[in-house]
Every structure is written in structure tokens, then in C-alpha cells.
Amino acid sequence: MSFPKNFLWGGATAANQCEGAYRDDGKGLSLVDILPTASEDRQYALFHPKEAEKKNYQYYPSHESIDFYHHYKEDIKLFAEMGYRVFRMSLSWPRIFPNGDDNEPNEAGLKFYDDVFAECRKYKIEPLVTLNHFDTPLALFDKYNGWSNRSLIELYVKYCKTVLERYQGQVHYWLTFNEINMILHIPFLGGGMDVNRAENAEQLKYQAAHHQLVASALVTKLAHEIDPENKVGCMLAAGQTYPYTCAPEDVFAAMQADREGYFFIDVQARGYYPSYAKRIFENKQVKIKMAEDDKQILRKNTVDFISFSYYSSRLTSTDPKVNSKTADNIFDSLKNPYLKTSSWGWQTDALGLRITMNQIYDRYQKPLFVVENGLGEKDVLTEEHEVHDEYRIAYLRENIKEMGEAIADGVECWGYTSWGCIDLVSAGSGEMSKRYGYIYVDRDDQGKGTQKRYKKDSFSWYAEVIASNGQLLFEKERANV
Q1: Which of 190, 179, 80 minimizes the C-alpha distance to 124?
Q2: Which string of DSSP letters, residue by residue, matches 146-161?
Q3: Strands 340-341 and 347-348
Q4: What distance in Å separates the CA atoms of residue 74 and residue 268, rounded to the nearest whole number?
Q5: What 3-state DSSP class applies to 91?
Q6: DSSP state, 86?
Q7: Are 127 and 174 in contact (CB under 8 A)?
Q8: What is the rounded CA–CA span in Å between residue 358 and residue 403?
Q9: Which of 28, 30, 62, 34 shows the shortest CA–CA distance to 46?
Q10: What is the distance of C-alpha 161 from the center of its chain?
Q11: Model-level pTM greater than 0.70?
Q12: Given Cys at both, which of 147, 211, 330, 447 links 191, Cβ 3.0 to 4.6 Å?
């Protein structure tokens, strides 16, 4: 078992979950900047954003977050100490175009990312940059109801052209949208829109999805024109859906559940809407409005690679009596009796990662990149400022091993960036206590703490994994042969 010699090991963050400095140096408001903590009903605010805008909550987690904006040098140095070869991060659109439709970009915002990329180069870390990671400017939500309006295509392309030209030669790996299929599940974060305004919410979501798909294709074209060395990927919130039983109805239901996500990647990787889309649209009474050249744009500008997040598999049944759902998971899923669950009710399924990778690669035959994977848990900082997170090491060890097995199966995979490589604010719940990182940040759910960084046990473990190019994980197996 071996990983490719040039395999890109690293970690992942998102601007709206780690940068903070929400009004510094001319930054505009992002979608998350109106979302409160979990204790103040963040979930309700996510799905009723217009109401959330009118309220004055006690605490907004994104406003300061872990203050990566002022700690980036310290944090990237720690990433380098682990041996990162790649750092997945995102650009904050409202930090560069505060209102989304400004005539000129905010130079201070552009300069900040110049500095971040320079720091990455200092340690020979390759940036993998997400252009929109749930970070549409709030002003575009207010003015256009976000991606439901076709005007956002032009505005997004303008923003992307600005950064693609600015960072030419500094960045070679780009993702157009984070978890593009999430627009169907959390339309405010995924599409910057309030579906409560629509007579048919499905029509609004799929029309917005079409706008994002066209925008993604246009930016893919633009990235290749600006720098032929650029590699552009799409990004899916993935996880194989299992049928609850071998009943044909359950098997078909599982296939349909997976198609809901593959729908987006079918378009981005193949260049056209899949055949099954017709029936989906008929059943949901959706009629996509297209410009004359939309189909040609999609067909001619497919992505170079497919990236995805993976945390767990899913389970579905057509039996109405089987209704025990997992807790706090954006995707509805039955409880799988063969799997363990985290403190947040997420089921852990390492083999599911191998299955998912094989399914995606069989479907598209394009290189894969695992850009999110990890375990959110409640970590305890000891008096000696240590965190003994053996549970995280166990989760990551098994997942990375199964990723290696998928590569041995014949799957081409370019790299792995585990999620929340440094503790950050949870996108769904707004909590700091749901920690994923190798680096503990002294910050609690109420925003209290010193912001000091401390290495967890998983920090040195991951450094050893990278140094051995993953071989550390298979030493016991080889010893037992």
C-alpha cells in the first residue's frame, strides 16, 4: 500500500469560519455575519434569514472567530511544522467586493490574500483556493435574493476574474463553489437566498443552482485562459447512501438520494444535465430558464478534477415505520446499527470513504481530491495545555487508510485536506466546542478566551503520517503479515 510520491497532504479551512475581522479594512458583511450562536437559535436563523437580519443577537461567532486575519503567520507556520504540502482555504468575496457589485475591488482585501499566499510560498505550501465557500456578500442577498437572480453570474465572474488575474502564478488549484449541492439543503448559505419568498421553493433552488453551474463553467474557462497551468475543480458534499434493506424499493431510494448530489457534478464534470434530471424537474414542477448559449457554455467548460467532503455515509428506507434519524446532520439519514456516532450524532464509517471514492471515480473518471474529512468532538484542554484527542486520531487513521485502499483500487487521487485543521466556528451550529483541528484555539461558544494556539496529540501524529507519506498507517499490517 502506498500513496503517490507527489500526494498533496494538508488541511482545510474557510474564510467565513476562521478569519474574523468581519469589518476590518473595508470588508463587507457576509451571510454568516447575521447568524447567532446555537444557543440563540442559529438553525432557525439559517432558514429564516430575513427575520435574523432584523434581530440583535447577543453574540455572532463569525465576527471574531479565531481571528486568522491577524494570526495567519502563526497558523501557517504551524501547518508547515506538520509538513503540509497544500492548504485549502477560501477567499471572502465581501472582503474583496464588499457589496458584491462594487465598481472596484477593495485593495486592502486583495493585499491580505497576497500576504497569505506569500506566507504559504515561504514554507512551500501550495494553496488550494475555494472561490465561494458559503460566502456570497450579504448585500447581494438583500438586493437580488442571491443566486436566484441571474445577475449574480456576471458579478461572480467579475470577482473571479479579479482574483484569478491578481494571484496568477501564486495559486494553481481552484474550486468554484464549496459543496455546490448544499444549495438544496441550506439555501441561505449555499445560495444567499431566502426560499420563503418563493411560491415553489424547488423552482427557486434549482434555478439558482443553474446560475451557479453556468457561473462555474464560465470561471473554469476564464481560469484556463488566464493561466493554462490552473487546475479547476468542483466540490460535492459526498457520502454513499446505503439501502436500509435489500428490498428493491430501498435500493432504488438510495440510488435516487445519491443522484440528488451527483446531479451537480454530472453537469460540471460531463458538461450537460443528466437524463434523470427531466423527471426530477417534472416531479418538482421545475422549469429551468436558460439563456441561449448556456448549454454550450456548460458543455465546453468541464472541470479538471472532482473534490468532495466526506464525513459519513447515509442510510435510507421507504418504510414509514423506520423513522429514527441521526441527530444534527444536514442530510436526513437513518441510524445505521453497524456504525458508531460522534457527540453530535454523526456516524463514523471509514469504509464508506473508500466506497464513495470508487463510486465517484467509476462515474466520472476524473482525478479526485478529498478536501474535507474529519471528526467534530468536544476537546478538553488540560492544565498543562494539552489535548489528548486519541478519538480523532482513530477516526482519521481509519479514514486515511481507506483512502489509501481506494487509491490501490485504481482511484486517481491528488490529495487530502482534513477539515478544520485548526479549530474554527462550525458552519451549521456556530459552535467552537465542535472542534476538528490538530490545533486547539482557546475560544469558547460565547467568544471568550485568549485565542492562544495549542498543539493537540493529533498534531504530531499527522506530522508523522505526512512525513511517511502515509506509510505509518500500514506498519502494523505489514508487521502482522
Answers
A1: 80
A2: GGGSTHHHHHHHHHHH
A3: antiparallel
A4: 37
A5: coil
A6: E
A7: no
A8: 10
A9: 34
A10: 22
A11: yes
A12: 147
Query: For residues 260 and 256, what is the distance between their CA atoms, to the nearest angstrom?
Result: 6
Indicate the residue type of 107. Answer: E
State the pairing for strand pair 305-310/340-341: unpaired
Judge contact between 217 and 272, C-beta under 8 A. Answer: no
Active site residues: 372
DSSP collapsed to 3 states, 185-219:
CCHHHHHCCCHHHCCCHHHHHHHHHHHHHHHHHHH
Cα gap 381→459, rounded to integer Å = 14
> Amino acid identity of 219?
V
Q: Is the dihedral of CA 279, 262, 352, 404 positive or negative?
A: positive
Per-residue pLDDT tens digits of the chain, which is 481 residues long: 689 999 999 999 999 999 999 999 999 999 999 999 988 999 999 999 999 999 999 999 999 999 999 999 999 999 999 999 999 999 999 999 999 999 999 999 999 999 999 999 999 999 999 999 999 999 999 999 999 999 999 999 999 999 999 999 999 999 999 999 999 999 999 999 999 979 999 999 999 999 999 999 999 999 999 999 999 999 999 999 999 999 999 999 999 999 999 999 999 999 999 999 999 999 999 999 999 999 999 999 999 999 999 999 999 999 888 866 654 556 778 989 899 888 877 889 999 999 999 999 999 999 999 999 999 999 999 999 999 999 999 999 999 999 999 999 999 999 999 999 999 999 989 999 999 999 999 999 999 999 999 999 999 999 999 999 999 998 766 655 4
CB 152 within 8 A of CB 144: yes
Going from the N-terminus, what domains does the chain have, and what CATH number goes with each? 8-480 (3.20.20.80)
CA-to-CA separations, 208 to 265, 324, 375, in angstroms, rounded: 15, 32, 31
Residue type, 462: Y
